[in-house]
Amino acid sequence: MAINQNQFIDLLTQYRRENWCGIQTAEWQRRIVASIAQETEPAILSRIAPHSSLPSDPLILDLGSGVGNFVVACRKRGWRAFGVEPDRIGQGSSLSSLQIASRRLDSGAFAAATGEQLPFADATFDLVVLDQVIEHVQNQVSVLSEAVRVLKPAGVIYIACPNYLRFYEPHYKILFFPLMPKFLASFYLRVCRRDPVLLRQLTYTTNSRVRSLLRKLNVHFIDLNERGFLDKCMARKSRAATKRVRAVRMLAGWPILSKLVLFGASSYIRLREGGSEFLAFRQTCG
């Protein structure tokens, strides 16, 4: 029998307290538990919708499914969704995120597996999700290759990860210098009274790195942050547009400057955004 919402919150609180001890403050852990416990429509689906249409009965894989929020939300829609999770993040605890996820659904929706060796046949899934995952794996090429392998020819991969060119570390929730060498970052974390155990499990990611990885796999991809910003710049004038958008729109209106301005705007977004979001396709989109 599946656990109820209160039982889920209790298990999640225990897991966060044990596994993230010394990594995040108690206050941050409370905030994250409250956020995870909210049953909301997955933002991932709204990000995908303008660029790719899922079939009416999609087969979905959440690679690095954690405590199962995305899989549970998809199952409530009646979709066939599955999650894989190695649960090797942080301190380790008596309770794993995979155990919590497995207690939320009566069906066998979750499996213990690594992204480097997915236990599925080629061309199985319509959607593969890697949400805040690739920064936690050592062999990013292998994980992305596996995601492409199990994707159907007309399927889509959603990738989201932090941008380590930002002055912030999203797991520790502290000021962090971009691409700080690990030996120096470990010392810095200890000064801040944080345990560097998670740092040793991270692979720094940037927008440019994700682009490079996807090019190696010879897949078509869309940078969602870049596309969204440029669409705003090219849209008709709106009072809701920010000063930055209005400035780019005005300068891009000059034929001589247009390409240079748009290139500069794209480069700025890649450097400035706190996170990266991509859609990848096995075949070129129209």
Which helices and strands, and how do they pair?
Elements: H1 5-19, H2 26-37, H3 43-48, E1 59-63, H4 69-76, E2 80-84, H5 97-104, E3 110-111, E4 125-131, H6 140-149, E5 151-162, H7 182-191, H8 207-216, E6 220-223, H9 224-234, H10 243-252, H11 258-272, E7 275-281
Q: Decide which structural class fits the backbone.
A: alpha/beta
Number of domains: 2
Taken as a percent bin, the fraction of beta residues is 5-15%
Q: How many strands, what sense, and barrel or not for the largest sheet?
A: 7 strands, mixed
Strand order of the largest sheet: 3-2-1-4-5-7-6
| Helix proportion | 40-55%
Annotated CATH homologous superfamily of the largest domain: Vaccinia Virus protein VP39
* Name of the CATH architecture of the largest domain: 3-Layer(aba) Sandwich
On the 0 to 100 scale, the average pLDDT is: 87
Distance between the amino and carboxyl termini: 45 Å
Q: How do the SSEs run, as a string of H and E?
A: HHHEHEHEEHEHHEHHHE
Residue runs with pLDDT of under 50 for 5 or more positions: none
CATH topology of the largest domain: Rossmann fold
The global form is globular
By CATH reckoning, the class of the largest domain would read Alpha Beta
Summary tags:
286 residues; alpha/beta; Rossmann fold; 2 domains; seven-stranded mixed beta sheet; 11 helices; 7 strands; 40% helix; 15% strand
Short structural summary:
The protein has 286 residues and is α/β, with parallel strands linked by helices. The chain has helices at 5-19, 26-37, 43-48, 69-76, 97-104, 140-149, 182-191, 207-216, 224-234, 243-252, 258-272, and strands at 59-63, 80-84, 110-111, 125-131, 151-162, 220-223, 275-281.
